[in-house]
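Slides due. Your pick:
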Amino acid sequence: MLDTVREVHTPEGVALRLPAAGPVPRAAAWLIDLAIRGAALMAISIVLGLLGRFGSGLYMIVLFVVFWGYPVVCEALYDGQTPGKRALSLRVVSADGAPIGWMASFVRNLMRTVDMLPFGYGAGLVASLADPWSRRLGDMVAGTLVIHAPRDRSRAQALEIAPHAPVAPLQAHEQLAVIAFAERAHALTPERQRELADIAAPVTGVRGEPGVLRLLGIANWLLGRRT
């Protein structure tokens, strides 16, 4: 079985496991986005068609903006997800697991002109099959990765945990490490969560699953969620 999980380590020592998405779910997400863009352009063309030649010229501008702007705006503003990717539980992130920015999204989507060659995304398909993490050429150039991001409620559950003051004052770097753990806990396996919580046992006073919950509570306390 091919291992398509990319593991990166944050400066805080937290290991992130990024399950790379293969060409099949990515193609399905692209088709969904294509259908959305096609429906939007059809509706716009009907309206602009009433304006005659001026409407035809304006439609060409709208066509360009929708085709190129749609993925960039969605990825940059909506946590690396277009509607198609959201439907397939996919997300675009930076190679280190950080959220994707405007420039990276622009570069990876501009590179589609190369990935589409010679036809039918041939170059992109070959690149994704050859790459260990199924990246097309645009992802390689932009330093991005498309991952599986299954819907879970771990982030929401973290917010629901009652804040808990640390048993001893924490230094600045320790506070950052606790907050980083809470922010990235959803990307860690339960075993890895407990392993990190055991390392922080001197701070929490408990180990195992109670230690994980205590760390999340301390993170909420440090972030001022004291209600």
Residues 23-48 form the longest helix (26 residues). The mean pLDDT is 83. Residues 154-222 form one domain. The chain is about 60% helix and 10% strand.
